[in-house]
Amino acid sequence: MADLFLAVADQLRGRTAEAGRRLTAALAGQPAAGGRYLVVSIACDLGRVRQSQGDLDGAVRAFEQALAIVTGAGGPLPVAGRAYLGMAGVFYERDDLDAAGRHAAGGIVLCRQLAETPRRAAGLARLAWIRQARGDRAGALEAMTEARQLAPGLVAAGLVNPVPAQLAWLQLAQGDVAAAADWARRRGVSAGDEPEYRTELEHLTLARVLLAQDRPDAAAAMLERWLAAAVEVSRTPSIIRISVLQALALAASGDQAGALHTLATALALACPRGYVRVFADEGPAMAALLGQLAAAQVTGQAEAASVPPGFLARVLAASGPQPTARREAAGPGAGARRAVPGLAEPLTQREMEVLRLLDAGRSSQFISRDLTVTLDTAKKHVSHILAKLGAASRSEAVARARHLGLIP
pLDDT tens for residues 262-293? Predict the structure, then answer.
């Protein structure tokens, strides 16, 4: 237990190498002493440390080790929720949104059983970004707001609750600059603060606020100091995230060559590790910059030579408009709508998710837990599906959906 807590302290200071060594040693010595809960806690913390080091494959191995301990014929024990949420983070970074969504939903349900509020809040924040990446803006804000309500005071002994900064970032992504700026003011984060690993998310969110306020020079000056701190301890994911924002700041300042060079450096670092969403989540400005880098690659410009073309194409595809995002005019929460011959009104993205669960024979209670919505909301989705498909029952709705080609 002492090793576990010391490793957490190391990680909060940004000493990820020391945390990894301590947890690896603790994990090697613990199984003989028994205590599955402690072993799983150590393995999951090791997975998170590997993520913070940019070793996503190592993180997956640690989370899989945890799941192997607590998953049996009767289903996973609640403590497996930590590992599922960790896996969701890895899948999300690599833009495997379906796998990320499944693991996040499962982890949230299991963490609810253990009353693990901080981890459940983190899982909901992850779910919010998965929905945002799919174009479900209303669903994303709903999940993030629930995360914020779950954990209003998760700040103790100087530790930072990440959810408010995540909410501010999501608000920025949805165009609400005023709300994000208000968070920064209330939180008291400043461009002049000294770099400290535990507040990195908050300060990178502040950099995004500055960029949205057309203050790229202020953002660039702050990011330069944070990059130096990350380089000093070889914290690769931080270097990638900061470099991505630096590229946007340089582009906004008119230094196009510097922006493309910085972006290419970040992509070259990200490629062997499979990071995709770190670029895609920065929105249209990053998509435009990626397009310019692709054009530079076609014409053989030197700054683009370090980026594998296949990886750049993958990041570009993830950064482009999602099918659901193109239909936002249908109204808040409308989600994706697929025009199908024989169907008067198309189903929304959320209704398609519910339909797939109905096809699997799931109850309204299960749908409520799986999609992290209230039971009444789940029942309303089912009613809308029946009405749109002209069905009198769930089984008839599934049969008609199959006939129309909505599900296999």
Answer: 999 999 999 999 999 999 999 999 998 999 99
